[in-house]
Amino acid sequence: MVIQKKICMIGAFATGKTSLVAMFVHSIFSEKYHTTVGVKIDKKAIEIQDKKINLILWDIYGEDEFQELQMSYLRGSAGYLLVVDGTRHNTLQKAFDLQIKIEDAIGQVPFILVINKLDITDEWEIESAEIDDVTQNGWTVIKTSAKHSIGVEEAFQTLAKKILDC
């Protein structure tokens, strides 16, 4: 039996949500930046704990000062990746704000805070102490580089395990 689970990619604009999905599903990375308009849906089958799971990945446009996340996109979601750009501190605050909104809209579902752009840590504005604070609050944090495929598989696999354990 195959289990289907909807997973949403959430975060500020230009944090790497689309790149993470492209690396996870197609093993490709593009230097070209394309703004996601609306939602882009991809699928990938994985196996966890001897169970086949079809992940339906909803890559939702990034929130910015001009457009707010449509909570209706989250309906039926089994979990989400909250994606932050390590080089832009404001994307961490945006993630905190979004997490509260999401919980208000759909309740508590498994999520992981993904701090992307690990390949350019010398440009990071997010301090280790801030990441430690988040993990002490019970959040799972995974650092990734969509560009070099670091932590990408781990992020999706970890989220899928959390979903199955619910």
From TrEMBL:
Gene3D superfamilies: P-loop containing nucleotide triphosphate hydrolases. The keyword GTP-binding applies. The keyword Nucleotide-binding applies. Keywords: GTP-binding, Nucleotide-binding. GO terms for molecular function: GTP binding; GTPase activity. InterPro entries: P-loop_NTPase (IPR027417), Rab (IPR050227), Small_GTP-bd (IPR005225), Small_GTPase (IPR001806). It comes from the Bacteria. PANTHER family: RAS-RELATED PROTEIN RAB. This is Small GTP-binding protein. It comes from Nostoc punctiforme (strain ATCC 29133 / PCC 73102).
